[in-house]
What does this fold into?
Amino acid sequence: MQRVLAERVISISELAKNAGTIVREAQDRPVAVIEKNQIKASLVSAELFETMLVRLGDFNQGSG
It folds into this structure.
């Protein structure tokens, strides 16, 4: 069983129908996209994504 770390879960078909709305919503909170009851993607804001990459880089530098 997958662990859902998003506040909202939507289907791929819902994303296709409402892409603009869902992307705007992802600016405020993570959105998980599912297909066949499995999480296929997580949508987050560009700002959060960049922060995650920086923190991951910091983590990787500390372990080397």
In short: The first strand starts at residue 8 and ends at 11. DSSP finds three helices and three strands in the chain. The longest helix spans residues 46-62. The mean pLDDT is 90.
